[in-house]
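[agent] plan:
  1. take the single chain provided in the ticket
  2. run structure prediction with default settings
  3. attach C-alpha cells to the ticket
  4. add a short note for the reviewer (M.T.)
[agent] executing step 1
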Amino acid sequence: MRVYLPATLLSLSALQASGEIGDAPITAFAVTPGLREWYIEDEDVDELEYAAFAEAARASLRLLGTAFGAPSRRAVLSADVPEDQVEVRDDLDRGVVRISAAVPAAAIASVHLDDADAAVAVAAAVAAIDQADLGDEAAQETVDDAEGFELSWYAPQELEQLIADARPSPS
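[agent] step 2 finished; step 3 output follows
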C-alpha cells in the first residue's frame, strides 16, 4: 500500500543513518475511506493520492514545529508497505494511517523536499499552523502561502546527496 510519511531533514538524516523510519506505530497518510469520502466528487486515484500527499506535507509543518534545529523545509517520503502493517485511522483525521512496523529504506519509493526558496514561507507556516487549525483566517493564509510551493521529487538513491546539499554551509 502506498503511504506518505511526513518528515523533516533531520528525519531524512536519521533514515540515512539507520536504514529505516521507525519507531512504530508510525503515523502516515494514504488513500483511505475517509479521504475518499471527503473528495467524493473526485474518484481519480492520482488526485486522491495527491490529497494524501498534501496531508503529509501539512503534517511535516507540525513536525518542523517540534524539530528544533531542522531547516524550514517540508519533506515527505512516499513508501510502499504491506497492507497488513497499515491500520486506517480516519477517526484521527482524513487519510491518517498507522504503520505497525519500521519502514525500511528499501520501501521508500521517492523523497519529496521543499526547495530552499520555500524556507521563509515554510518557517512562517510552522509558526502559524496551530492557529490555522483553530480557524484563524490570517494564519490559514500564511499556511496556504507555504503550501503554494511544490515539493521537488527525488529518487531514494539521491538521499545522501540531498542531505549533504541541504546542510547549512559553515560561516
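[agent] step 4 note for reviewer: The CA atoms of residues 89 and 129 lie 22 Å apart.
[agent] ticket updated
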